[in-house]
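Comment on this:
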Amino acid sequence: METIRIPNSATYSPVSLTDLMFAAPLASRLLVGATLPGRLVQAAAAGVYAGSAIGDWASRRGVRKIDFLATFGADVKHLDEMPAARREEDVLRFSEELMRIHRPVGRRRAVLAGDVNERLTSYIAGITGQRVETSSSVREMTLAGLVMPLASASCDILSGDIAVFRSTGVFEPHVLAHEFCHRKGYFMELEAQALAYLALSRSRDRRLRQSALAERVYRNLRVLDGDDPARYGELLDDTPLSGSVLEDFRRLRPPDRRPGAVATAMRKLYDSRMKLTGQNGLSDYDRGFTNFLYTCEGSPAVLA
């Protein structure tokens, strides 16, 4: 089988190169009263960042991307709307399955990231006949976490740098898989959601499989709640979820969690950016993702 290795050299830097480029002049000014040292650090970081981005881009040119419509019978522009009644059935069915197989993840993030990345690599290779190997490095925090307070993680698509901002419990393998999809060159959010789910849901490792089920249940709940956190809590109470899994779902969307003015403005900006890149907007994370699964699972391309 052909193997393509994307260097992702920026991900091995002790600190985020993006953070260095933006923060070095300010930190230098605050610490030593002059901006020149910070400017020098900024310039050096920018050079390394650019070299890493160019190296990754060159490696990705040989990647055979999955044709979603041909392979799964659905893509970002070809989706059937999932009926509300079917969403409710999905929530019940996959909540029950999740609780039946649930085990605490119990792995350090670095180990879990390696397991998730290998699973994703193998799954994609099974479709394309090509292993696209990438870094498994993940940061605990970057400045992106300050400007995206509602996000659980982020990926710089140029450098491949990934940061996970907080613990998400049962959801964490899917969070990691989603970001690793971006690192492998799948930049559309719906594609990353779908590939992460499909790879993990077919894993023999129940700790990876349960994360995919949790993501599916959560995203259906988000559509059903009509963007009302209180309604989300009511829907959650009607599921068979319990214990630490239920707490993970509650932490992800607390009943009193309403975005402030800055967060709302950032969401609108990001929604517009997604639409400009051929996506449907932020709805691709939940409505688009669950509609994809509904369309895919009823497609002749998948049933054949």
The chain is about 60% helix and 5% strand.
